[in-house]
Amino acid sequence: MRRIVGIDVARGLAVLGMMTAHVGPDDHGPVPPGGFSQLADGRPAALFVVLAGVSLALLSGSSAPVVGTRLVQARVRILVRALLLFTLGELLILLATPVVVILPTYGLLFAIGCVALRWSRAALLTAAGVVAVVGPPLGQGIASSLQGARPTVLAQITVGHYYPAIVWTAYLLVGLAIGRSDLRSTRLRGLGALVGAGLVVLGHGGSWVAMHVLGWPEALATTEPHSSTTFEVVGNVGVALLVIAGCLVVADRWPRVLAPLAAVGALALTAYTVHIVVIAALGQGVVYQATLGVWLAFVLTTIGLCWLWAVSVGRGPFEWALHRVSTKAADVGPDRLPPVQEMADPVAPPH
């Protein structure tokens, strides 16, 4: 399967954005509200999940969804990847860094995505809208009912504060719909950017109206990062569409210039995992007392090492393991073939 450079560039931005949210210094500027550092809070993670949906679509036929045995193979590959991602995420949590690891929820979303592999784009977008509207109040209600109870892993990744799957499934479904489209279409890219800009305005503008004009409670109307409200989801989807459309256009024009950033996207799992391990090794100070120098060191080292690895080796170590194990597990029998005698030469004499 040929890699799409623009998607890798967008994924690279998502990984570096999450890294910035973890070890980047706060500027607390007035414009934009909260400072530029807040742009990296929540939005890159949402973009990361939208791109996960795109990846699921590419794994299952892109704009022509696979059927039959190929569909079974795609689902097995995705489910195995889901299990591996969940396991890796739980191992990273054991490092006890001050970072909320996204991989357990990421793995659960992969498993959920298997259900929607044959859905049309209209069905995917409709389902995403329903999840974005119903998921936030439902998730908050369930989370409130569980207060005081011992939190389970399933409850944390389903209705937890940072990456609740009951809401974040919307991002995955949007990504699947994007991946089922012709990503080479200039018209579609322009439409994606236009819709993205409209969703950003609708999400953040609608939040302001809901809170300051209609008097909605902040818990349901804010667009604060990781609030997982309908308005935040709408705004984050808009940002994701803008970034993906822009990256596809720019990567087509200057693929060599963006090769280092695309390398980060191609090695996204490795880059994300290693940066969590490095944070654990350096201590919590790199997060709680973040400095510009440390942030630059993380970003530049990640870009440099990923580019060097991609050029000299190819697939990243964690990506290789994910691909190898999931592909081997999906090595099932092909669709039913005609009997041997039906494939013989009809004019050959009988034995």
Content of β-strand: under 5%
Nearest-integer average pLDDT: 89
Q: What is the H/E order?
A: HHHHHHHHHHHHHHH
Number of helices: 15
Rg over C-alpha atoms, rounded to the nearest angstrom:
22 Å
What does the main sheet amount to? none
Please provide the count of β strands: 0
Overall shape: globular
Distance between the termini: 44 Å
Structural class: mainly alpha
Helix-residue proportion: 55-70%
Short description:
The chain is an all-alpha fold and 351 residues long. It is 67% helix and 0% strand.
Give a written overview of the molecule:
With 351 residues, the protein is mostly helical. It is 67% helix and 0% strand. It has 15 helices and no strands. α1 (5-23) crosses α10 (230-253), α1 crosses α11 and α3 (68-93) packs antiparallel against α4. It starts with a helix and ends in a 22-residue tail after the last helix.
Tags for this model:
351 residues, mainly alpha, 0% strand, globular
Topology summary:
Layout: H1 5-23, H2 43-59, H3 68-93, H4 103-113, H5 121-145, H6 153-159, H7 165-179, H8 186-212, H9 218-221, H10 230-253, H11 259-266, H12 268-282, H13 285-288, H14 292-312, H15 317-329
Helix pairs in contact: 1-2, 1-10, 1-11, 1-12, 1-14, 2-4, 2-7, 2-10, 3-4, 3-15, 4-7, 5-7, 8-10, 11-14
